[in-house]
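Students often ask why we bother predicting the structure of a whole assembly rather than each chain alone. The short answer is interfaces. A chain on its own may look different once its partners are present, and contacts between molecules only exist in the joint model. In this exercise we take two input lines together and write out one structure for the complete complex. Read the inputs first and try to guess which parts will touch.
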Amino acid sequence: MFTIAEADPALTKEQAKPIEARLRTALLKAQYKRLQKNGRALLVVIAGIDGAGKGVAVTLLNEWMDARHIRTLAFGEPSTEEQVQPFFWRYWRRLPPRGRTGIVFGSWYKPLLAEAARKSPDLQKLSAMAQEVRRFEETLDNNGVQIVKLWFHLSRDAQVRRTDQLLADPDTAWQVMPEDIKVRKKFDRLRKAGELAIRLSNDPSRPWQIIPAADPLMRATCTGKAVLAALRDTAAKSPAQPAATDQAASPEVLQELDYSLSLPKSVDYDRELARWQAGLAKLTRHEKFRKLPLVLVFEGQDAAGKGGAIRRITHALDARQFHALPISAPNQYELAFPYLWRFWQNLPLPGAIAIFDRSWYGRVLVERVEKLCSPAEWQRAYGEINEFESLLQDNGALVLKFWLAVSKEKQLERFHDREQSPFKSFKITPDDWRNREKWDDYLEAANEMFERTSTGRCPWHIFPADDKRYARIKVLETIVESLENALDVRTAP
Amino acid sequence: MFTIAEADPALTKEQAKPIEARLRTALLKAQYKRLQKNGRALLVVIAGIDGAGKGVAVTLLNEWMDARHIRTLAFGEPSTEEQVQPFFWRYWRRLPPRGRTGIVFGSWYKPLLAEAARKSPDLQKLSAMAQEVRRFEETLDNNGVQIVKLWFHLSRDAQVRRTDQLLADPDTAWQVMPEDIKVRKKFDRLRKAGELAIRLSNDPSRPWQIIPAADPLMRATCTGKAVLAALRDTAAKSPAQPAATDQAASPEVLQELDYSLSLPKSVDYDRELARWQAGLAKLTRHEKFRKLPLVLVFEGQDAAGKGGAIRRITHALDARQFHALPISAPNQYELAFPYLWRFWQNLPLPGAIAIFDRSWYGRVLVERVEKLCSPAEWQRAYGEINEFESLLQDNGALVLKFWLAVSKEKQLERFHDREQSPFKSFKITPDDWRNREKWDDYLEAANEMFERTSTGRCPWHIFPADDKRYARIKVLETIVESLENALDVRTAP
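Now the answer. The structure tokens for the assembled complex follow.
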């Protein structure tokens, strides 16, 4: 079983001085090297008992390193916005870019530690929390964000000694905070809680490192050494997943689709469209909708009619409540973060709608086909994406994903049409023609994507779109019916 | 006097069709041209009576243009974070970058309109609000953000007719919101309020444009035309200020400073430092401090000891409450915004401290000397900066600005020292030597800066720093004493 040693090792000033000088030079060197090489971002998680001098150690670390490339990320009580977003949102939002370091106070371990510190902690709940935290860290670690976790530890005696010493001198008494005194009374319980939380969340790829915190010089040099080791560790932690060898081909969903499906002649399209739009408009203006974040994802081949379908939706919405995000290749700045980062930045609030014209599925479509990421990366992405959508749903969001499927012949026809139209010609680029050459590769990627990410909770809605009107009505119908279910509201036709 | 015409012009479908087709092509072309040329950002402010179809018009505009480069910015009730920041903060935060368009609902005119709509509006208050709004727009306009303001207008009869028509058909009734009905009762008062607000905030450089809103086709084409005209207008609106001709030289503050000032031999530096740090620590942990945002600005020549002075401050602070921002040349992304933008992004919350190691004063120092901006631009910056600091102070912030002054001889000595030290050599670059060659230009810029931005409310604190210890103690002393005054708290030494 995991326990923390009771020793309170110390350093004399004479011992510390040369160590500190070497550390400072080495830290700066390692920091610059990582910056120049555009290496992984580094998150240093700071935790441990109150009154262990965590703040002092971090201030010192900032003094030793080049503070321009470090950010202290202190998370306190969540703001109103943070309260309505998924728990991990605020951590995603403030990730440091590649090459940089973030020092995290009030990390994602806080609820875990709070639960562990209760008189009789719920072990099942704790395990579930630890599981989520582990997956969160794994996703970051696998996508260019290294994580180092430091646990500041000192014995009860040392804590009392340290705070008493500081209190004795009026010029250092300010270093002692009310929490530091309070902690004495329940020291043993808190220490046990820490041990429990550490044990449950333990992950050999990202172990907690114990910083002996009783002696200020020992504490500072250990913190510096741990950060130095992390900065020097340039290899990604997680073992590269072996590419699945016995991979059975996915069902050929797109090949077997009936592309001749179209709106029956008997149906008045304009009337039908207006009817579903009215339904959507009513639902999104319903009181119950104010609590629901709605996420709509559109994927499909070029010229499948994603834009047109989206316009038929937004036509029924108030411009103030939706946000349509056309997703193309990430820009230079976005490339400095994990691929999911830019989507975390654009999650809708309750009562708002985010419409993604292409999405995070780019990772397993264009990035796979164009070899912009490694096979291990896109294979891992299925699980990461399922987890991401699952977190949104846990938080009350309705997530609907659509694939508009066009046949190869129809696509060619539309490309030619676009080239003719004065206000559509901007939509056709050499890229579109290049993608068309890789038609079969994209089909294979899409088929595997359906198989791996169509979950019971969040299925793909796949519609043939050679008849645009048919596809548009199907999309609207799906949204309206899903909203009726989610809100438990009927809109009479 | 300014009044809005009562006419409700309309277009038939046949009239509108060719206009729309031409508009769409022209809008796309203008949009791409601006993007390619990295032209000014465009903010389209949407206002006018409720029930005038503003949302529908903007949705249509989004459909006509390439939505990838437009963002609808809808500002509703301010979040907790927005409530404690200066009023304009949320608008600064969400500015579109160069080349892009933002469509603003719930703009900075909202409080002005609300005041104007009161039974007996406070005209003096209204004028003051209009004044602030005008200065805000002027600062944006002068720094690469074009502003177009559209006022959607329709007569009382037309409003009633429009909403009644929509309500008659169950498939269009959803377009009518409760506000649209409510507005009828107080239509005349609201119309007058709108006229009053428009008149008071009227600025010939950025006039309101009236969009006749009764007829949907007329409304849409007028909106499109106004945006098209704006996109095509590539010249900056504000007349370039003539460079002041009869410019008297500023007092030679830095030349006349006594650089021999140093800490008296009788003073125990360590003891003195600890005393002021303890005072600072106590004050920043005081209950009253939780309501105060603290902004510390450090400027001064290279090697004047800014970093060292800052470390003596942060040493007394909790790592969780301060944020030290070393400011260097803006990166590619920051260059797409007005120069003040990146500072607006980094304002401290109440109870927090932002320490700027170099700052917005770069505009009138390095950017002036290195000719990175035009003389008109840096001359305008004095007023913009005073206004910026004034807004922070109005919002309850304490803003302290320090200039650490080093003599030319002492700087040389320190440059040589730095080159020797293993963990200081990173601080000396060819830039430092180049800046040194322009020593006199920097002195002149600094002296003029003191004269133009040392206001009664926000003076510069200028300290000779050849003796680093002297400067550090002076800085700490100033901060502690200013905080004592601001919080009305004494810390006994």
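Check your guess against this: Chain B touches chain A through 59 residues (CB under 8 Å).
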